[in-house]
Amino acid sequence: MIESDVQEQGTENAAALQSSGNEDGLTAGGMLREAREQAGLRLPALAANLKVTVGKLEALEANDWSAFPDVVFTRALASAVCRALKLDAAPVLALHPA
Length: 98
Prior knowledge:
Largest sheet: none
Distance between the termini: 43 Å
Order of helices and strands: HHHHHH
């Protein structure tokens, strides 16, 4: 497989992940978990990169909103995770509490 094929395949996978939203019953946390796994990142590495606890990321991926002080923090963390994973935040934030 040549490099352009790998890049095209990666782009197709990212587009499929971003458009999957509620079609497959995927939650915001599920979308983040899938993107992280596809990127080959483990939770501790992502947590260190974002300077948050692993527990916060676990709660985010589990859609456990009670683990966060408020909705603003939750949405900001989800946005930061999306930036770190090079994932469009709009579909993820659309599934988060407003």
